[in-house]
Amino acid sequence: MARGILRIRSGGLGRARTTAGFILAVLIPVLATTVMSFAPGLNFATHVLVHLTGVMAVAFIGGLWPAVLAAILDSLLLNYFETEPVGTFRINDPQILFALFVFLGAGIAVSLVVGLSAKRAQEAIHARAEAGTLLELARDALIENDTIAAFLDKVRETFQVRSVGLFTRTPGTGEGWELQAQSGEPQPKPPGSAESGGGAYEMADTGTALVVSGRTLTAGERRLLAAHATHLLLLRQRHALQLRLKATTKMAEGNSIRTSILNAVSHDLRTPLAGIKLAVTALQRQKGRLAEDVQDEMLHTIDSYADRLDSLVGNLLDMSRISSGSTAPLTSSVTWRDAIEDALRGLPAGAIRIDLAPDTPAIDADLGMLERVIANIVENALKYAAGSDIAIVGPANGPANRPGVATIEGRPCGELRIVDHGQGVAAADVIAMFEPFQRLDDAPAGLGIGLGLAVAKGFTEAMGGQLRAEPTPGGGLTVVIRLPLSTGDGNPHHAPGTPERREP
User: Fold this and answer.
1) Residue 264: is its pLDDT beyond 70?
2) Strand bridging mode 466-471 / 407-408
């Protein structure tokens, strides 16, 4: 946007030039008369031409009124020193009188032409600046995405005023005005009110007004202000459309999540329910005729399917919280080891190798969330890399500010790596791997509904961390959890929406 608009000054020329013109209007006639007195043989026409040249010089420098003053003074000096009788203001020759009137008219005409030319030049400069500002305004409307506050700052800079305000009519009354945003000080007055020190406003529509405060605007500047008011209306409409688009997109995502949940319920949840129902029915009908080891196997099946249902339902609920934005962590200073022990509870001893230094620095995290993150990643590794070496590797020892330490937005962070040596994931599928309801290579439903990594990513980011995946050297997949190192504040702050810790 243009950095400022040029205003047409009242005289067409600057104050300095006008002042200089008045000074020269006195000096040049006197100087010309003095110089011409040393050449007594010159005729009257020559004297007139010399004085007319001085009037033109004054006109070019000072404009109309200094030139008029110079022309009058030159006429009087010519009359007094060059016409008979010399030394008086009487004129005996009618031709000399006519020549003096022509001289005076020519001087005034030259002054008018010079003044008009200066005014037209200033108007051309003003029009060029106004056209440039409108061009920038149109370009901004097409390619920029300004905020209302940034736009008001530009308006204040463009018109060189003290403050700019956006007013809307008070809802319900339709009479009063409410200030929605402003730039600069003091606070501008509502449209139509008395404004000390000058000001103006333009209506963008019947309920929106753009107000500038600090000086009186010219007619051209008011036209330019009207263009800015129209741009402001378009800007507000675009922001409203963007908000509506975001709401629609969020609603569509919510519908997609709900549809996927229904599909998951209809397929993946019914399998363990059917297994539990079948085992319970068999126990009820044939309890007395079943061998004890068969009964134990059926009870184990019920317990296993119940755990699977618990995990599926928990991931569905967690994904619902994440997608609705209601996940709020209860962060405190915790250690990786505490979360790992909770996450691996229930797994056979030795199923996961743990390589974690005893003095690993604490991190800021929600212990329940972190447990779910680690448990879901480990569960994913056990599904897709079964039979391979799976390890949880902690960060290297050393000070938090050592060179090369990982950071999140400039803050040192701790890393935990969950490493497997399975089939790995193609680079093109890494991003999709963390999306809800995604299963690697269309894995069968028995491997879950594809929410584990999505929930882990959502919880990690809710705690201010990062979750990423990279190839394991030699084959496989390594998932890296990054969370900020603890600042030593051991007082947790609870926020609503935090999921309860669930024992596996």
Assistant:
1) no
2) unpaired
DSSP-derived pairing of the beta strands 199-205 and 407-408 = unpaired
pTM score: 0.46
414-472, pLDDT tens digit by residue? 999 999 998 888 877 788 788 766 655 544 444 455 677 888 888 898 889 999 999 99
Instruction: For helices 44-62 and 64-82, give the axis angle rounded to 10 degrees.
Output: 160
Poorest-pLDDT segment among 171-185, 229-243, 326-340, 489-503: 489-503
Q: Which of 316, 283, 312, 319 is nearest to 299 (CA)?
A: 283
Residue 85 · residue 92 · CB < 8 Å: yes
Backbone angles phi, psi at 242, to 5 degrees: -65, -40
Taking a C-beta distance cutoff of 8 angstroms, is the pair 405, 417 a contact? no
The span from the CA of 330 to the CA of 314, in Å, is: 18
Distance CA 21, CA 486 (A): 75
Query: Band of the pLDDT at 504, cuts 50, 70, 90?
Result: very low
* Model confidence at 44: pLDDT above 80: no
* 353-355 and 391-393 strand pairing: parallel
Give the H or E element holding residue 480: strand 477-484
Q: pLDDT averaged over the chain?
A: 77
* 69: helix, strand or coil: helix
Q: To which residue do tokens 């680690």 refer?
A: 374
Helices (H), 325-420: 336-343, 367-384
Per-residue confidence (pLDDT) for residue 483, from 0 to 100: 93
Can you read off the two tokens belonging to residue 130? 């106004």
CB count within 10 Å of CB 440 equals 20
Q: Amino acid letter at 308?
A: R
The tokens 């200094």 sit on which residue? Answer: 66
As a whole number of Å, the end-to-end CA separation of the chain is 60
d(CA 25, CA 16): 14
Please tell me whether residue 410 adopts helix, strand or coil conformation: coil
Contact (CB, 8 A) for 214 and 199 = yes
